[in-house]
Amino acid sequence: MQTRKISDSVAFVTGANRGIGRAITEALLERGVQKVYAAVRDTGTVGDLVGRYGDRVVPLALDVTDAAQVAATAAVARDTTLLVNNAGVALGGDLVSGDIVANARQEMEVNYFAPLEILQSFAPILKTNGGGGVVNMSSIAGLSNFAILATYSASKAAVHSLTQATRALLAAQNTAVFGVYPGPVDTDMAKGIDMEKTSPQHVANAILDGVEAGTTDIYPDPFAEGFGEQFEDSPRAVEKQLAGMVQQG
Fold first, then answer.
1. On the chain, which terminus has fewer CB atoms closer than 10 Å, C or N?
2. pLDDT band for position 235 (cuts 50, 70, 90)
3. Cα(239)–Cα(237) distance, rounded to whole angstroms?
4. Residue 154 within any structural domain of the chain
């Protein structure tokens, strides 16, 4: 896999105002990236980054589920060479709860359909700019379903599959496609998970290290690394292990 320098990039990051997305944005800037388009619902939430980094941060208003806004931001960010599909949501619910289907639809809209639509808009831009790269944020839960996060896991499995397809489909235009599979990370999204968690800053730097090294599948924290090794060795054993996490009533 070809190596690349982050400092040569113009990045477009969704969900850039908090959690892993904010940590990625800050890490990109600290590594000397030329510019980051910080795509967020409320541009005021990245005002402090503009204050620190000046015009190297370009806030863009984006609801990733709004097709018109996706098209509008793509029209502005035509010099993008590194697309980071980071924005995500985890709503949860068990299989007998009344809102499980509605939650699942929303998770698929944000976690799968939105990255797909963004990819559709940005693939021609990346091609024009020499190929560039795409970072898709999946999860270890996208490799084997965490039944306690059943619908979220399903949405991240869709991202995993989309990443594989995108890698094949964009290879001819010299676009590198990276799948990221974090474990538990210390963010608002994971605050209800009672597990040891890795900092977003550690995860962000591991992701960028992987991109620069040309690592196709990136496991950016110790838990994810161990999980990835176990999954590659025996997917069925991992499935049984995760099923055992379900609390029996």
1. C
2. confident
3. 5
4. yes
Average of per-residue pLDDT across 115-134: 98
Instruction: Tell me which residue of 90, 89, 92, 60 sits closest to 76, measured CA to CA.
Output: 60
The whole-number pLDDT of residue 246 equals 59
Separation CA 225–CA 220 (nearest Å) = 7
**Cβ(218)–Cβ(181) below 8 Å:** yes
Tokens of 141: 């839960």
In a domain? residue 49: yes
pLDDT value of position 230: 75
Give the residue numbers spanning the domain of 208: 6-243
60 beta partners: 39
List, for residues 2-44, the tens digit of each pLDDT value: 667 899 899 999 999 999 999 999 999 999 999 999 999 999 9
* Residue written as token pair 């605050």: 191
Mean pLDDT, residues 97-114 taken together: 92
Q: Please state, in angstroms and as integers, the Cα–Cα distance from residue 248 to each residue in 67, 120, 242, 243, following that order.
A: 42, 43, 13, 11
pTM of the complete model = 0.91
CATH label of the domain that carries residue 190: 3.40.50.720
Instruction: Give the mean pLDDT of the chain.
Output: 91
Please tell me the distance from the alpha carbon of residue 201 to that of residue 114, in angstroms, as a whole number: 24
Query: What is d(CA 209, CA 166) in angstroms, rounded to the nearest whole number?
Result: 21
Q: How far from 237 is each of 67, 137, 138, 212, 242, CA to CA, in Å?
A: 40, 24, 21, 32, 9
Q: Is residue 248 part of a domain?
A: no
- Provide the number of structural domains found in the chain: 1
In a domain, 1, yes or no: no
